[in-house]
Each structure stands twice: as structure tokens, then as C-alpha cells.
Design brief:
about 375 residues; alpha+beta; Chorismate synthase, AroC fold; five-stranded antiparallel sheet; about 25% helix; binds flavin mononucleotide
Length: about 375
């Protein structure tokens, strides 16, 4: 099975199964000189981890990361960064009924049909447990972007039919972590919680969406035609388990807009530089960044593993049967998906920055203090 590597210059390779011993990721292509600690990575892992609240699965994983290569004295060395997250709370017994009777709409059937075998505990490799690796790698990418003054943030903007009001970037940053739904509109967050609770009580689950936005992305990232930023970003976002739609700018709404309304007219800024007067294009024109904020939305369907009774088939007995998925599952995905969307966005942008020569692939030029010398590693004692 291939398809476990993401990125061209900033390469992320992952392994692990939901109920296996551990999840792991190698980040190859990170320049030397980035200050990086396990705490930097742990911060984002804690936002994704299970067992955070009543609206996340009760699986009790500490998701503690160990960085086991690629760092010396707190800085990256330019060699592969290896990270491992142990699986501590796997209970496979609840998955035995589904070994030959696939859960409706999960990856159970397609994995078995394709490979003739599968690791069935917890959904194995098809489980979104895999995204713990993406968030770990994304934390490294976010640090590189932060050094370049680039910010990004996501929040939950819809659960079921409860839609959050639009928020500006400052509100997005300040408010989205203040409630367990991760929605920067507190009134909508309360309504979302009530809706989730209702579905949960009925043994059901519900879908939703995540809004993302950036600040400070330079003009000129992306290349015609298949390397357009939206093409690469869409591919990456659609790889997030349960994602059914990726939109940027006006997204699907664009079909209702006349050209004269949708167009972003050009003006000169105070430096005499051409600048779009508005940003309905979502920071991307001709597949290339304009320097305006990139923003968009990712839709995630309702989790498929639900206690409500559904019909499946058992390919061993040849019988149809009723199933209830009683394991520990998220009743809704966007609250835990927020750090995953941020990670995928950061990974895509860093890859484009390296490809475009915006970042020196060997070493960050602005290494601080004692490491800001021509040759290391003995520089501090010389
Ligand atoms: C953060 C996150 C957590 C998830 N948790 C669950 C879960 O607890 N139960 C479940 O059935 N699906 C969960 N999913 C979705 C499944 O992983 C996904 O439906 C499955 O891999 C099949 O892929 P597909 O829906 O893209 O076809 C989760 C997805 C994400 C992004």
C-alpha cells in the first residue's frame, strides 16, 4: 500500500494503525536552524486528542509525542525529524463483530476488498487516528511559517444546520479555543452543542464544516497548472478522513454571483503596488497566491460509527444482519478536525514556500543567538 507520503520538498511520511503499538511520522526536508521542542508539537496534539469533552470520543489517549531524531540542542539539524506517539488505550474487542460484517460507510469493506486482509482493530489504518501524525508534522510547518510572519487559524463554522456568524481574523484567533466546539461565535457554539447533544441522545451523529484563514502568505506561491495552490490544497484537504467538500473564496456560492459583483477590482496601494480592492478570490488567482488572505471551508460528514441500528452483510455467513456500533466514537468531527485542517494548510504552504525559493531548504537564514554562525555545532564553546 502506498500513499503514505505527502509533500514534495517538505516530505511527511507516516505509519501506524489505530490499535497498533504506536503512530509515527518522519518529516524530511525541514531546514536546519528551526527552534523546535516536543512542547511545540504537544500543544497542537492536545487540541486534537480524544477524550477532551463530552462531544469527543472517550478513548483515553495522552497522545504524548517523542521526537527521536533531527534535533540538536533544541534546533533542527536539517536531517529527518522522527516523531512517535504511543497508542495507550486500544480496546479491539468492540470491533470483533465487524471483522467480516463491515460497518456501513467506513473503510472496513473497501480495505478488505482491496487487500484481501485488514487490520480491523479500531479501523486500523483507515482510522482518523492517523491524523495525529499530520498534526505533529503540521506543528513543525506552523513554526516555520511563524518565523516568516505567516499566521493561520481555523474554527468550526457549521454543525448540522447551525451556522456561525462570520468573524474577523482577530476574533477567529482569540475566540475559537474558548469553547469545546471550537467555534469563534459563542452563541452559535451553544446552539451547536445543543444540536450535537440531541443527535448523541438518539444514538446518531451529525456533520459540519471548518473555516480556515491565513495572514501574511507572500504573493507568488503556486505554479500553472496542476501545481496550482488550490489544486494542491484541495487534494490535501480532501485526504482528511470524512471530508466531502473543499472550497476557497466564495466556494459553491460563486455560482450565484455575476462577474461584475464577484470580480475583485485592482487599485494601487500606498506604495503604488497593485492590490485587489476586495478578496472574493480567497487569495488565489490563476492558481497563484495574490498576497491576500487565503480562506475557505472544509465539510466533514457525520461520523459513520453510530449506536443506531443499521443493516450490513456478513460475507462469511452470507447473511444480512443488523448492527450497532457501540465502541468509543466521536459524535461530530469538526471540533477535533480544526487542528487537522490547520496542519494540512501549514504543510501545503511550507512545501510551496520551499519550492518557490521563499525558504532556504538547507538552513533558516535567521537562526538566533549563538547558532547564528557560519559553521556549527561547536560554535557555542569556541
Ligand atoms: C479527527 C477525526 C476523528 C474521527 N473520528 C471518527 C470516529 O470516532 N468514528 C468514526 O466512525 N469516524 C471517525 N472519523 C471519520 C473516519 O475516519 C472516516 O469516515 C473513515 O476513515 C472513512 O473515510 P471516508 O469517510 O473519508 O470515506 C474521524 C475523522 C476525523 C477527521
Amino acid at each position: 500500500m502506498n500513499g503514505n507520503r505527502f509533500g514534495r520538498l517538505f516530505q511527511v511520511t507516516t505509519y501506524g494503525e489505530s490499535h497498533g503499538e504506536a503512530m509515527g511520522v518522519t518529516v524530511s526536508g525541514c531546514p536546519a536552524g528551526l527552534e523546535l521542542s516536543e512542547e511545540d508539537v504537544q500543544r497542537d496534539l492536545d487540541r486534537r486528542k480524544p477524550g477532551q469533552s463530552m462531544i469527543t470520543t472517550s478513548r483515553n489517549e495522552p497522545d504524548a509525542v517523542t521526537i527521536n531524531s533531527g534535533i540538536q540542542d533544541g534546533y533542527t539539524t536539517g536531517t529527518p525529524i522522527g516523531m512517535i506517539i504511543q497508542n495507550k488505550d486500544a480496546r479491539s474487542g468492540k470491533y470483533e463483530p465487524f471483522v467480516t460484517a463491515p460497518r456501513p460507510s467506513h473503510g472496513d469493506f473497501t480495505y478488505s476488498a482491496k487487500f484481501g486482509t485488514r487490520n480491523w482493530g479500531g479501523g486500523g489504518r483507515s482510522s482518523a487516528r492517523e491524523t495525529v501524525n499530520w498534526v505533529a508534522a503540521g506543528a513543525v510547518a506552523k513554526k516555520i511559517l511563524a518565523e516568516r510572519g505567516i499566521e493561520l487559524k481555523a474554527h468550526v463554522n457549521q454543525i448540522g444546520d447551525v451556522r456561525a456568524d462570520e468573524v474577523n481574523f482577530e476574533e477567529l484567533v482569540e475566540r475559537s479555543e474558548e469553547n469545546e466546539v471550537r467555534c469563534a461565535d459563542p452563541d452559535a457554539a451553544d446552539e451547536m452543542l445543543a444540536a450535537i447533544d440531541e443527535y448523541q441522545r438518539e444514538g446518531d451523529s451529525i456533520g459540519g464544516s471548518i473555516y480556515f484563514e491565513t495572514r501574511g502568505v507572500p504573493r507568488g506561491l503556486g505554479a500553472p497548472r496542476f501545481d496550482s495552490v488550490e489544486a494542491r490544497l484541495g487534494q490535501a484537504m480532501l485526504a482528511i478522513p470524512a471530508t466531502t467538500a473543499f472550497e476557497f473564496g466564495l466556494g459553491k456560492e460563486a455560482r450565484e454571483w455575476a462577474g461584475s459583483d464577484r470580480n475583485d477590482e485592482w487599485k494601487f496601494d500606498s506604495n503604488g503596488d497593485p492590490k485587489p480592492a476586495s478578496n472574493r478570490h480567497g487569495g488565489l488567482q490563476g492558481g497563484i497566491t495574490t498576497g491576500e488572505p487565503i480562506y475557505g471551508e472544509v465539510t466533514l460528514h457525520a461520523p459513520t460509527s453510530i449506536p443506531k441500528t443499521q443493516t450490513t452483510v456478513d460475507w462469511e455467513t452470507g447473511e444480512e444482519k443488523e448492527v450497532q456500533v457501540i465502541g468509543r466514537h466521536d459524535p461530530v468531527l469538526p471540533p477535533r478536525g480544526v487542528p487537522v485542517v490547520e496542519a494540512v494548510l501549514a504543510l501545503t504552504l511550507v512545501d510551496f514556500m520551499l519550492l518557490g525559493g521563499y525558504i532556504n531548504p538547507d538552513r533558516l537564514d535567521d537562526r538566533p543567538g549563538e547558532y547564528d554562525t557560519k559553521y556549527h555545532p561547536t560554535a557555542p564553546d569556541e
